Amino acid sequence: MFALQVALVHLSYNVLGVVVIYGLPFLRVIPTRADEGLAALAARRKLYVALYILLVFFLIPAVLIGVSQSVGW
């Protein structure tokens, strides 16, 4: 039952994010410009891609998990 609740919260969060970002015209350009910028950076230096992956998928989650463990959330 808990897994179903988590899945529904995850779905709601994703749907709300899409509605907010694509529902407001001035926010629509942010994802595409961010993608184009990262692609241009990746074309120049492959190291930037490795650093981006390391930062976004490993370091930031590790820091957030560490903070949440120390605070007691």
Give a structural overview.
With 73 residues, the chain is an all-alpha fold. The protein has one domain. Helix content is 88%, strand content 0%. The chain is built from three helices and no strands. Helix 2 packs across helix 3. It is flat.
Topology of this structure?
Blueprint: H1 2-23, H2 29-44, H3 46-71
Helix pairs in contact: 2-3
What labels describe this entry?
73 residues; mainly alpha
Give a short synopsis of this structure.
By secondary structure, this protein is mainly α.
Q: N-to-C terminal Cα separation, in Å?
A: 22 Å
* Structural class based on helices, strands and sheet pairing: mainly alpha
Show unreliable segments: none
**Total separate domains:** 1
How many β-strands, per DSSP? 0
Sketch the topology as an H/E string, one letter per element.
Answer: HHH
The total of helices stands at 3
Q: What Rg, in angstroms, do the CA atoms define?
A: 17 Å
* Strand percentage: under 5%
Largest sheet: none
Coarse morphology: flat
Instruction: Calculate the mean pLDDT score and round it.
Output: 91
| Helicity range | over 70%
